[in-house]
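Lab notebook page, bench 4
Experiment: in silico fold of construct C2
Operator: M.H.
Input chain length: 67 residues
Purpose: comparison with the prior construct
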Amino acid sequence: MSLHPRAKAGCQLLVLLAVLAGLLLLFPSAFGFVERAARELRYLWWLVLLVALAIWLIWGVGRRPKG
């Protein structure tokens, strides 16, 4: 059974949000880090880079180059 691309993207987003929520419940100190990062710009850049790396690893790795 093949999912429609929008349905697949929606499922991936839901799984990502569920994983984030689970991690925040398992590691409350991570939530504190995110709060501090939102207050201080130098920590925020690391958070932005980590999120970008996670997104790239989830959706970017393993795709074949077009062409």
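Observations: The CA atoms of residues 7 and 13 lie 10 Å apart. The chain has one domain: 11-60.
Next step: discuss at group meeting.
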